[in-house]
What does this fold into?
Amino acid sequence: MNFLQNEQFNLKPSVNKVSIHKPRVLMLYGSLRATSYSRLTAEEAGRILTAMGAEVKFFNPKGLPLFDNTDSADHPKVIELRALVQWSEAHVWSSPEIHGNMSGVMKTQVDWIPLSMGAVRPTQGKVLAVMQVTGGSQSFNAINNMRILGRWMRMLTIPNQSSVAKAYNEFDEHDIMKASPYRDRIVDVMEELMRFTYLTRDKSDFLLDRYSERRAGKPKLIAM
It folds into this structure.
């Protein structure tokens, strides 16, 4: 029996919807330190995105409880984070590399973002850029692992990425990033993020539609 015979496949995106608002980008950073280079790098990326025409919002992870699945789901910081995720069309994740991986602060934020909230998939089909900073030589461990997380969250992680080595050398006395190849790469990454966001943000219905769920008769989930 050919169970695909009568299936209607949704393989052509609609061209009717055209958003006119600024691309909405959520910035997450992975450190609580007063002088946090992952935060400073995210702030630099935020200034670049703003200059490119994006609306940028930051989530401050200070006070976010450790992930306990549901016990702290009503915590104000969890509610704030989830609201920002729903508002966003794209994300930038910026983490220090600690013990060869992203920080616990970074991972906790992602852990608090559910794959689905009722009929809404808050991250699926949204665009993601990943960045990391190190105190030593250049490394890619944290961004590689954030890519795994982004894939698990069903996000569209862009090809380009940024890794800033010896980040303490890359900022001036006003916490502004100095001109350097590292900063040039961040501009490249943000430019690519904006392009992917423009290409995909009006295609959420197309990107969320799944054959397996249609076949099972499951309610159609929406992006937000």
